[in-house]
Predict the structure of Peroxiredoxin like 2C.
Amino acid sequence: EAADPSGTAVADINLKDVEDCLIYDRRGVSFLFKSLYQDSKSVIIFVRNFLCYSCKEYVDDLSKVPRGALEEAGIRLVVIGQSSHQHIEPFCLLTGYSHEIYVDPKRSIYLKLGMKREETFTDSALPSPHVKSGLFMGQIKSIWRAMTSPAFDFQGDLHQQGGAIIAGPGSQVYFCHFDMNRLDHMPISWLLQLAGVQQSLDFSPKPKIMHV
């Protein structure tokens, strides 16, 4: 079992419980969840909601992951949100994210896997290296984006927490982490290396590829 760099427990899950849940792409076309990992190893990131400032900044950095590095390792990188599919396109335009993204609008996968629905903050938790905004300014940004979006809503359950899974091919789970709070994201470089990506990324404002 992989060690979790945040020091929190690695969740034990069974993908058979959620393999037939439906996810939707930006056009509203449905797919079975298992289609994401049946034929290849996938890094699947569940975000809180598309308006959450910490999720937006985390996906900002996911957008910097070179497609070539994923293809070389045979890895799929997938983001799953819990809004309606209409919010996918604006979120991708905002973050520059061009890898795979789907939504689970009923939160079926979140709920069946047991992802947390309230935030827990502990002294030992390490802050996400990908979140740049402080709590107050981050909340202001989230509210402003909700107010100025075409459909005024918060694009998902505000209390729902996210997580990360590395799975496939088949139903084998290599790693699973459920976020304790909005800052409890797994470091992207660590996740990708655990999945088998050979290149290490530096997520400073100008990303650089470091060959290791």
The helical segments are 53-62, 67-73, 88-95, 108-113, 135-148, 188-195.
